[in-house]
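Render this sequence as a predicted structure.
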Amino acid sequence: MSDSGSPAFVLGEPQPIGINTRYACWLTSSEERFFKAILRVGCVASVSAPQDNRALVEIRNDHDPDEAWHWVRTELEETSRRVILDPIWEEALWLL
């Protein structure tokens, strides 16, 4: 959770999109790291450029949408646990 008490990200439920049976869900976050993190997840076909802190995450056709959603959510939760240090603290750690 962020300092304001609101969640660091919100991941919507997978919904069918387009003419073919493809699935996608919305990711909302004010932090760029979440949009970058899901680009590496194998079940993600594409991520739209974030607009107003929101991006469309398209799931690959060869993955079950619900299982893919859980995989993406797990990766996002793991990303939220990582602590981002200010560069001054990173430099200080190297001096220890």
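Summary. The domain at 10-95 is CATH 3.30.1360.40 (Gyrase A; domain 2). The mean pLDDT is 87.
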